[in-house]
Write a structure and sequence with these properties.
With 73 residues, the protein is α+β, with helices and mostly antiparallel strands. It has 2 helices and 2 strands, in the order H-E-H-E. It has one domain.
């Protein structure tokens, strides 16, 4: 999350005054249970709330037929 927020902060600085929508976010650093994933997502959302330029976030892999993404859906 730290690296993602650093990239985001760079974009906010570069495009000062512009609104930003995050279209693809996900936790993909190994298997974690649903409660831990939810906690990670909530923590990320709370960090985004501190950045008024960010207007929204969409977490991706809402569904997938590929078993590789089973733990992310």
């Amino acid at each position: 999350m730290t690296a993602a927020l650093a990239v985001l902060d760079g974009a906010i600085a570069r495009f000062r005054g512009k609104l930003i929508g995050i279209t693809e976010a996900r936790y993909n650093r190994g298997r974690i249970d649903d409660a831990d994933r939810a906690a990670q997502y909530l923590s990320f959302i709370n960090q985004l709330r501190l950045r008024p330029a960010v207007q929204g976030v969409t977490f991706f892999v809402a569904s997938a037929s590929n078993p590789q993404f089973a733990d992310e859906t």
